[in-house]
Design brief:
The chain has 397 residues and is of the alpha+beta class. The chain has two domains: 212 residues, Ribosomal Protein S5, domain 2 (2-Layer Sandwich); 172 residues, Alpha-Beta Plaits, CATH 3.30.70. It is built from eleven helices and 13 strands. The strands form three sheets. Strands 5-4-6-3-1-13 form a six-stranded mixed sheet, sandwiched between helices. The protein has a four-stranded antiparallel sheet with strand order 10-11-9-12. A three-stranded antiparallel sheet has the order 2-7-8, with helices on both faces. The longest helix is centred in the C-terminal third of the chain and has 25 residues. The C terminus is likely disordered. The structure holds alpha-D-galactopyranose. The site of alpha-D-galactopyranose has 11 residues, from α5.
């Protein structure tokens, strides 16, 4: 949909013209999976497609939410923001505004139209994209843009943890809010210190592959994995005082492995420690342009998520397996929470067409339906769109 069509849609729904427009990206994580909540390093980047919002400020305290992606429209009062199951997607914006008000930031009533290009439940952070989007709207329109971006990122995460009830780490909101064009973010999730890294893929590109198996994070085993990691940390702490699993090096972990009686808990911890180490190596190899090595680390990461952390499943494993069989693909792994959703593959640019054709066929042959492929540059974090910017909403995924 072109921005003009979206503007028309806004007028159709609300009977007035919108005043402001915003865009918030989705994200992929290059490597460092399921360790943001273990104080680890992650390496995500923002996509160049995401979620749009058109906004008109109201004179009263009413919040109206509509979306081109869902039929459900929700209206509520700024003074009474409570989680309601039936409000479905609108709980994300409600949660962010509620937390901002609780922190004494200012907000007013608004008419909002959301339009997202990120497939829901595909592991590309459609919810974080929406959360940070709302945070930036409230910041720019009512708080003179003075709220620090990392504070907005934390508010968005808090909304998901406390209002929606998904115990996610900070990676997604950080990638969405802090993304920079053509850069990946090396983020230490313990201290929230970060640095940007150029993503120089030389003759290669990243292909995003969707299993098309829907994943619902709050119904998934996500929270269970977090609990298992807490259990693992307690076991380690009997011998070594560390605040989180990712403080350990692989060598230190190997020496303490004997402490674990339960193989499953040991495996969860092992994944976390080794994955953290892989992020450091991956950052290094990308910097040096050693893409074969970078690709090898992606493969190792997927194997660990499959065998030790057990968050992949038949669809993701098949997709990665089939991708790696194609000439020109030097690395592939699931990205995000797993249990379905998306994987990424590092593929030689001149082989991409052949790659998608082959993977489409072989995956469909084994799973029964086709995967989808998305191509995205690395985009900017959440921002306001000023009318002079010629932005097309046509960027389909
Ligand atoms: C989801 C969560 C993130 C992170 C990833 C796994 O995307 O929202 O915080 O834990 O899963 O790396």
């Amino acid at each position: 949909m072109e921005i003009n069509n979206l503007k028309e849609k806004f007028t159709e729904i609300y009977g007035v013209e919108n005043e402001f427009s915003f865009l918030s990206p989705g994200r992929i994580n290059l490597i460092g999976e399921h360790i943001d909540y273990n104080g680890g390093l992650v390496f995500p980047c923002a996509l160049d497609f995401g979620t749009y919002a058109l906004v008109k400020v109201r004179d009263d305290n009413q919040l109206n939410f509509a979306s081109t992606n869902f039929d459900l429209k929700v209206s509520c009062d700024l003074d009474n923001l409570v989680y309601k199951e039936e409000d479905d997607w609108a709980n994300y914006p409600k949660g962010v505004i509620k937390i901002m008000l609780d922190k004494n930031y200012k907000a007013k009533g608004m008419d909002i139209l959301i339009s997202g290009n990120i497939p829901n439940g595909a592991g590309l952070s459609s919810s974080a994209s929406l959360e940070v989007l709302i945070g930036v709207i409230v910041n720019n329109l009512f708080n003179e843009g003075k709220i620090d971006r990392v504070e907005l990122v934390k508010i968005a995460q808090q909304a998901e943890n406390e209002f929606v009830g998904v115990n996610c780490g900070v990676m997604d909101q950080f990638a969405v809010g802090m993304g920079k064009k053509d850069k990946a973010i090396l983020l230490d999730c313990n201290s929230l210190s970060y640095k940007y890294a150029d993503v120089k893929l030389l003759d290669y590109d990243i292909v995003i592959m969707n299993t098309n198996k829907r994943r619902a994070l709050n119904e998934s085993k996500y929270n269970e994995r977090r609990t298992e990691c807490e259990e693992a940390l307690k076991i380690i702490q009997k011998e070594k005082q560390v605040d989180n699993l990712c403080k350990l090096t692989p060598v230190e972990f190997d020496k303490l492995e004997y402490l674990f009686k339960d193989e499953k808990i040991k495996n969860r911890a092992k994944h976390s420690v080794y994955e953290n180490d892989r992020v450091i190596s991956a950052f290094d190899s990308l910097n040096k342009g050693q893409l074969e090595e970078f690709g090898r680390l992606l493969i190792e990461s997927h194997d660990s998520l499959k065998n030790l952390y057990e968050v992949t499943g038949k669809e993701l494993d098949t997709l990665v397996e089939e991708a790696l069989k194609v000439e020109g693909c030097i690395g592939a792994r699931m990205t995000g929470a797993g249990f379905g959703g998306c994987a990424i593959a590092l593929v030689k640019k001149d082989k991409i067409e052949e790659f998608t054709e082959k993977v489409k066929k072989t995956y469909a042959g084994r799973i029964g339906y086709e995967p989808s492929f998305y191509f995205s540059g690395i985009g900017e974090g959440t921002h306001q769109i000023f009318e002079t910017n010629k932005v097309s909403l046509e960027k389909t995924v």
